[in-house]
Amino acid sequence: MNNHYLSKIKTRFFGFLLIMLCLSIVSFGQTQSVRGVVKSGPDNEPVPGALVLIKGTQKGTVTDIDGAFTIDASPGEILVISFVGYATKEVAVVAGQTNVNVSLDLSTSDLSEVVVVGYGSQIKKEVTGAIQTVNEAELKDLPVSSVAQKLQGRLAGVQINQTTGKPGQGMSVRIRGQLSVSGGSDPLYVVDGFPITGDINQINPDEIADISVLKDAASTSLYGSRAANGVVLITTKKGKVGQTNVNLNVWTGFQNVPEKGRLEMMNAEEFAQFKKEYYEDAKQTVPEVFQNPAQYRDKNNDWYDAMLVNGAPITSYNLTVTSNKERVNTAVIAGVFDQKGVVVNTDYQRYSLRMNTDYQVSDKINIGVNIAPQYVYDNTPRTDGTRGTGILFNALHTWPVMPIYDEQGELTFFNRFPANTGNIFAYPNWVRSAQEITNETKRTNVLANTYAEWRPIKGLSFKSTFNVEISNSRFFSFNPSTATSAINVAIPTVAVSVRDDISSLSWLNENIATYRKSINDHAFEVLLGFSNQQFRTDRTRIQADTYADDRLPTIQGAINVNRGGTFTDVGEWTLTSVFSRLNYNYKGKYLLTASVRTDGSSRFGSENRWGVFPSTSVGWVMSDEGFLQNNSTISFAKVRASFGVTGNNNIGNYTQYALVNNTINAVFGNNVVSGAGVTSLQNTNLGWETTSQFDLGFDLGFLDDRIQFTYDYYTKNTTNLLYAVQIPQESGFTNFNDNIGEIKFWGHEFAINAIPVTGQFSWTINANLSINRNEVLSLADGIDRVYGSWHITQVGQPFGQFYGLQKLGNYANAEDLANSPKIPGRSTVGSIKLKDVNGDGVITFGGDNDDRTIIGNPFPDFIYGLVNNFKFKNFDASITASGSQGNELYMRHLFSTANLDGVFNMVRRAKDRFRSPENPGEGIFGTTVGGGNVTGIERDWPNSNFVWDASYFTIRNITVGYTFTKLPKSVKSARLYMSGQNMWVFTKYWGGSNPEVSMQNNGQGDGGNLSPGVDLGPYPVPRTITFGANITF
Amino acid sequence: MKKYIPVLLAASLFISSCDDFLTVVPETQLSSATFFKNQKDFEQAVNAAYVPLRTIVNDRAWLLGEMHSDNTYYARNVLFGATDNQEDLADFSVPESNGTTANVHVLNQWRQDYLIIARANQILALIDDVDFDAAAKANVKGQALFLRAYAYFELARYFGKVPLHLTPVASREEAALPLSEEAEIYAQIISDLNAAIPLLLDKSKQEPGRVTEGAARTLLANVYINLKRWSDAEQVLTPVITSGKYSLMSSYAMAFSDNAANKNNAESVFEVQFQEGAAGLQGNFTYQWLPRPISAAELQPLMGTSNPQPQDGEGNNIPTPDIIAAYEPGDLRKDASIGYVFLSGAFQVPKTLPYILKFFKKHSQHNNHGQNFPIYRYAEVLLFMAEALNEQGKTGQAIPYLNQVRTRAGLAATTATGQAGVREAIFKERRVELAFENKRWFDIQRTDRIQEIIIPHGNRIKANPQAYYYPPLPGAVPRSNAFTNLNKFYAYPADESNLSPYF
Asked: Which Pfam family, an example, fits this chain (chain B) (predicted)?
């Protein structure tokens, strides 16, 4: 790393800080003490916790439990009194008047709210971009470990899927359907102004005060080459003015995988019956063990169920201390989160601490430090993966006649039936695999932000920040000789250990000048800034095997060190940026924002180092015009339009270089020599992916904003997609990394917030619906399609469509077989009947006479979310739901779980397969007769039999709470609640319990961006029931 | 204004240091900009050019050159159906459409050969511009030329016309080239080998395992024989025989390398090098050639490992009854080449199946062995010479070379007479002497005997499937498309054809 450079930056930063400190001036004025009580207009009850601020300053206080306040103010100053849910009121201080009583009116409008935007904040009314915010209150109570889980169902235009139930993992967040072909597609997460490089889902959600999701290019383009996937701004907690609060939030509960929704597999008797029929239908002798299926009636072995834990505990403790008094604003959040998984031997623990401090050195200078250390321990068995790698998949299709426990009640090691039973794979005991294989990660992270802000004159501010993110992750896995996660590996097996240590450091220095000025009705804000960011990761991986003793999985205890699995690796990138923005409005109703960022990145080729990302947006608050001003129905109306260009620089650190691999070793005689070869082609023009986006939206408020409606239409074109363009391997290379192609994305977002009922019983609704579409307009020269194992991405179609042969049924009888196109030498009566797409009379898979076609779409027609909040006296309740309509999944596991050769246990539906022309079954599964030559077609050739509708509607969360009113003096508030997460999933999908599932791999391959919606039966998402208490002192 | 000085200062510093800050080169990998600068770099580069040969002989050559002939077949395991790619090769039913095939083995053979070519081209394009020891440079260059020629010779025999890359590809546009005529490919091979012969060291001086002058001469002779340029073959081969650097091993079994010993022995002209262990240099071809399913207990005596694992799936490269019958009575090579193993789980009747004993060497860890695989042995040099002479009408001079090979096999001198008779004797001798060394298909191909040999072979299998390892179960018979594609060349790999505008 360039330490010299880092030290230069540091020196510069501290120098700047010092000068600003020296220039501080403290001012004083004439003041009087003002007292008052704030009451609620409708019921005349005191309002505790209302904010009383002197307008235009940071001075202020908060009302106490009786709604009372005291503040020092000068005559002529204006007190601004605000509280959530009420209209803000301004009261002037009159000389000599020491008592001010204020009655607040209920407000349904949040337009005066301040919204966090990129590099600053804006009044919601004046926002011209497409931004959605979620605050702390909306996120509380949900018993989950990560932020993304809490956001499910709340955001229009954002699809958040939980693709696996592994604690702390598997959240896929896609803003406006954005996808890269092979680069990253996750949004940029910015925590307190710092674009982080780590995983957002490891952050304690209780540290978060609010979240802004920036969707259109005008909102995001200040993040330049990293903004194309959208930006999520996270602001952590601060103290409330004038208050000191100690809050304890504790919840605990348990998790289960509901029986309903699991993939239904055959039980032992059904399986034995299947095997019996298999041999009978093939006119072969039935092996003795299957001659009497009834003998297994009470001897079922549900391998999948054996992997699960019933009532796995989950607990969270958070202690939050905030104080904002006498120029110091502090928040300290200490959290402990402990989740045992619903799969045997899963353990996830997080210990987190955050200390946020702002100090007002003088009226002109503020400094602040946020520091958030964290430790996460995670042990998750190797649950996910395809046959032979994921133990849940393995458990699903293990023969249920094989015993989990032996006669002594001990877990078996290994099960194998005689070869004449068709048992070609031996099955280790997967429960043992889960219990005995260590697969743990220990992560330590520290996230720190520091800043100094200097306001030399009114309206002008200089802010310098220095942010650091340090993380260290230590992965250790040990596979003892007594267990394996692979199929068909005899026990004892070769013990293997892997140690993988990754440490990374990211730092960012930003220097920003802001100037605000109003001249008559013209208001300006200009922002100028530059920044440098550097990231470096160092990785050491050691893989060793063949242990003399499983109790000592040390490196020195291994007989072999595996060279292929042992390496060091360094990843580094740097980013230098200059950015500016102009906000202008006239009378607060004609709004204009323009911004530009220039990014230079080490990832870009030497001939293409700098990218420019401009944007502009305009808004018109129509309701401020005369013709709408006194309209009794329409209380607010704003039209917005924006256009901008953003980039995606997730193209890999060294993709532009031609790399030489010097481990292509050879041996001559007994002499091992190192060998070296060029493994990739250089591209000095390699650059970022470019997205140009247009957004048109409007915000409407009706009936005093009791009903608010937001609509956005967007259209964007992503070009220069990073793609490893396949080239003929006669060149000696497999691909050329290039920026290619164009994908168009467009969509509509609707969001509505309404308050149908207020008063003693109140009800609010927040609903949203989004339609996201895409179409591939071009790929590389001479390439109009990219195939995956089960997908195609083709010009003129949405990307990542399921691709294979179209199933028409099974050949019903000899006549049907004779008169239909078939596969020479393979099709038989009862085997899968496929569509002859090219009409040549023969069914062909691949090659020039390919009959494959698009057989399904993993993308939904629309997604939607619905949040209802109810309040009655001291009770509150909320229901959060979300859904997806029209999406399909590729039930990939059927290649094993419906292997008609009886090699594996099978889905229960296969009982109703084709057995004879008279007994054709339900038409899903074909004949077993003919062995692999026949059954292999249905199993090995991707076809529409694998594709199933996976539309769903999920009740994500139901929470019921009770707030106590009669409290001891020392307690400010207390609430008890009960919460249920993932309560019910309504879906017709039958391939497993999670219709949001998707294989998650990076890059171009299977499970990557072009290969969504593949179900391999991963870790189930549990139903969680918790009880909690939230007490503030 | 003074107040803003720090800001301006910072801004100017920022701009000046940008370029350094934004240049981040990979630290854990070399890049082409810094490589190919000295002798060591080129030596490493030529070492890497050998590496694809391991993959070729371990995973592909026996499928394309041996099981695609009458010498070996696959042994059906009815529980496995999805092995079309291998079966299609053994069954002469490789599917073709518009001159391309999706057969994965054809594809990978193509790719591995071109990988050798690309690595050799990289060396040959740059080596003359870098100054280092002339002898070392000649040796590297000679090896690179040999390897490029060898790869093109494989391609020419498998595919006929192929793209001729002679310089490294540097951009996407250069990646595909038009097909060159066979004559052009052969001209290049001959020119490369003629250039390589004087550059390469002879066997006594070269590091064992690397290609030598003798290897280059033998390869060139093979090329000439393929082209029926008999006198050229004789001429280039003569120094190999007269050099005295090569001789037949005393017994046939000794001609083949052990797991760790007897490598690059006196009979070896060129062999692909393997090494047992965890370094990734091992082979496992004998495991791929097992009749299956085989239990651990049945496998252990064959391999001698401490951790045998049962093997399922289809058996591949199983010697046919034809090759077993091809050995003359008393031929010592028969028992040295073919062994038998009893499989309790076999579906075949009887449950005893043959396997290629001559390459099965004892080793310690399952699925990991170190015996080398021959490309050229001195026995073949002798048979080449016999053939080159006989075809020129020098039948009398040819017969002693043939007899040298026969004598070592414990057989009497050949009784064949006349050019045609000796031609047939040499052809038969090659079959048994070089059995399972991936020569058979090429021999059938170059002698234009595909129809004559393969059609009856197919008919024998169809007439009596169980003699060819089909189990006595309903439906276990050759597939309907067996023996329908008897083309001289394989079709071009479809995956490559999709990416190339030229074929």
From this structure: SusD-like_3
